[in-house]
UniProtKB/TrEMBL annotation:
SUPFAM superfamilies: PP2C-like (SSF81606). Pfam families: PP2C_2. It comes from the Bacteria. This is Serine/threonine-protein phosphatase. Residues 6-245 form the PPM-type phosphatase domain. It comes from Pseudothauera nasutitermitis.
Length: 251
């Protein structure tokens, strides 16, 4: 059956003084049916984090617009965005007084398939209806403890070192890049990209339920409002991108 998409991106500064997250959706300028979503959570002192996150978006747009599917794979394109943004962010350390770093989540839609990759603890969730199909695994200390069975989800949210990343863009070590894909796509598939300012306050069931029941725009608004309430005046920047696949209306 023919599909169409609903999309929304949204941000909230939370209780921070500065918005250091960045998010964007953009279509390919010449190839119909191709879309890229990118989200980055910047870190690194005043303006440094925002500058790092901005570099992720700039590099994503540049590389996506020059994508040549005859000669490169989706995995190669998405990895190049993260790798090259990492190099640029490292170089900015020599031209500024900050120590900039960023996470990255990059998703690319082509007709019939979605590919993605991430580095850090910003997440991508794939839901089918309200059910979770998969989500990215955090490159963080608590994420590693969870994978080893030493910490559960509730303990991870309370852990005093929950913000310690094991990999990110701009660090001394090359970024760790994990890939995922989904093909074919069906009505009811949805993808949520979000920073930890959002996912830290929700179960997977809550996220999937809201996205399945509401439009992309409505779901983004509801999730941000609830995250703000649950943060209790101590919330981080909140950033979200939602892509929903729905049946195309009959002509």
């Amino acid at each position: 059956m023919p599909l169409t998409i609903e999309t929304c991106v949204a941000r909230h500064t939370g209780d921070r003084k500065e918005q250091q997250d960045r998010v964007a959706l953009f279509a390919h300028p010449t190839r119909p049916g191709m879309l890229m979503a990118v989200l980055a959570d910047g870190m690194g002192g005043h303006t440094g984090g925002a500058m790092a996150a901005e570099q992720v978006l700039i590099k994503a747009k540049q590389n996506f617009e020059s994508y040549a599917p005859q000669s490169e794979t989706p995995e190669h394109l998405i990895a190049s965005v993260i790798d090259e943004a990492h190099v640029v962010i490292k170089l900015t350390r020599f031209t500024s007084e900050q120590d900039p770093h960023s996470t990255a989540v990059v998703l690319m839609l082509q007709p019939g398939r979605v590919d993605w990759a991430h580095c850090g603890d910003s997440r991508l969730y794939h839901f089918r209806g309200s059910e979770l199909v998969s989500r990215t695994q955090d490159h963080s200390l608590v994420g590693e403890l969870q994978r080893k069975g030493k910490l559960d989800e509730a303990g991870a949210l309370r852990h005093p070192q929950r913000n310690v990343l094991l990999s990110c863009l701009g660090s001394e070590q090359p970024p760790r890049i994990d890939h995922g894909k989904q093909a074919p796509l069906v009505a009811g598939d949805s993808f949520l990209l979000c920073s930890d300012g959002l996912w830290a306050y929700f179960s997977e069931e809550e996220l999937g339920g809201a996205i399945a029941a509401l439009s992309a725009r409505e779901a983004a608004g509801v999730l941000i409002d609830h995250a703000r309430e649950r943060a209790g005046g101590a919330g981080d920047n909140i950033t979200v991108a939602i892509i929903k696949f729905v049946e195309a209306p009959a002509r």
